[in-house]
Every structure is written in structure tokens, then in C-alpha cells.
Specification:
Elements lengths: L1 H5 L10 E4 L5 E3 L3 H9 L3 E7 L12 H10 L17 E4 L5 E8 L2 E7 L6 H8 L26
Antiparallel strand pairs: 1-2, 1-3, 3-4, 5-6
Length: 155
């Protein structure tokens, strides 16, 4: 959450685990300047941890972000030891790119359609689309646009 909020998911930090979008291969960042350019070109993604006993851990400059996220949840590395058989840990992309995107209008407003990679949450995407924060994704919301104030060609 910290790197999403501060925008640093679009830059490599020394010690980040990065994933090649073309092959899925992962590697530890040793050259942040070069890897940040590759992120900007769409070749690489910063990954984040799904904590567990066998998860690859960030090092160097990236490690404090991951430790802070665990601490904010009241957890540390030992927290996963009792459930190590079911919480082995892995890494997931920090950013996802929806595919098959569609937008339609119906009698009640807009209907958005998209597909996401496994393990991604549509509520998080919708929170970003609606201008909220991901942690607010499940909060009740009113309509995006009041129908009485909207003409037929306006969104």
C-alpha cells in the first residue's frame, strides 16, 4: 500500500523482486536506473509479497517497505511459522493491466467490464477507477453521477 500511495511502484528500488512481463521470470534488482527505464517501457513489473515462510524477500532499499507493510498488519516473519504448510508465501505483481475492457451505458448508469490476472481484485480496480483508495473498495457509494443532472450524452 505504501508504494502504491507514493507512486514508487513505477520505479525499481535496489533489492526489489521484478518480473519480466514477457516470460514471467523474476530477478532481484541490482541496477535501479536501468530497471526503472524497463518498467517505464512496460517490460518489467515490481512485485510485492504474499507473506509466508518461503516467500522471496526484498533486500536493500526495497526491504523496509515490505517490513513496514507486515508491521502495519501486526505481523512479522515468525507469524507464518505455525501455518507454514498453507502459507508458504509467494510474490504478485504490484500493478495489473485489465484486459478485454468495455464500457456500456444502461438505465442505471455505466457498466464496466474487464478481465484481470488470477489473484487480482476487481474491487481494487474499481476503487481506482472511481477515484477512491483500494482500502475503500468495499465502502458503500452512491451513483457516480446523479441521473437528474446528466444529459443523454454526458457521463
Amino acid at each position: 500500500a505504501g508504494r502504491c500511495a507514493d507512486g514508487s511502484l513505477r520505479e525499481a528500488l535496489r533489492g526489489d523482486w521484478l518480473r519480466k512481463r514477457s516470460s514471467g521470470g523474476a530477478f532481484l534488482c541490482e541496477d535501479p536506473e536501468t530497471d526503472t527505464a524497463r518498467i517505464a517501457a512496460g517490460e518489467l513489473l515490481v512485485t510485492g509479497p504474499l507473506p509466508g515462510v518461503k516467500a522471496r524477500k526484498a533486500t536493500d532499499d526495497a526491504a523496509p517497505f515490505e517490513a513496514a507493510a507486515l508491521a502495519a498488519a501486526g505481523l512479522d516473519e515468525r507469524s507464518f511459522q505455525p501455518v507454514k504448510r498453507i502459507a508458504r508465501g509467494t510474490r504478485r505483481d504490484g500493478l495489473v493491466f485489465p484486459e478485454d475492457v468495455s464500457v456500456e451505458r444502461d438505465d442505471e448508469g455505466l457498466v464496466l467490464g474487464f478481465t484481470l490476472p488470477a489473484g487480482s481484485y476487481a474491487t481494487v480496480v474499481l476503487a481506482h477507477v472511481c477515484g477512491g483508495q483500494p482500502e475503500d473498495a468495499c465502502a458503500p457509494r452512491g451513483p457516480l453521477v446523479e441521473p437528474a443532472q446528466t444529459g443523454p450524452d454526458e457521463i
